[in-house]
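Appendix B. One record, verbatim.
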Amino acid sequence: MSDSSNYVKKNLGPFILGSYFGNKFPAETLMQLRKWSKLKDVNVRWNVIMAFNNSFGNNHSEKALSILKYFTSEVDPGVKRALSSTLRFLSKHHCCGIGCNYDYTPKSCQQRSISYT
């Protein structure tokens, strides 16, 4: 998870954690992602966020938001972009559950919390 290589970064979070483990073992994956969300490693945090940028996040949007809220005060630009991308993806499918008026610019991720309306 903490490997900084592009191959690991592009495949681990969105595909292996989200698409495979998340859809095959959702309860266990959500529990582990919640644990990993508290780690300080930037690559781990990026992978946790990107695990919800697919059908797994789409199928478990409320639980995804409960984990993604930990990242709203993130300072790393890459992690902020991952959060913006994932929230944008989720809002396309769950507009009413996430809040369509959410401003996705990375600057706003530092200042706002995730809306659950």
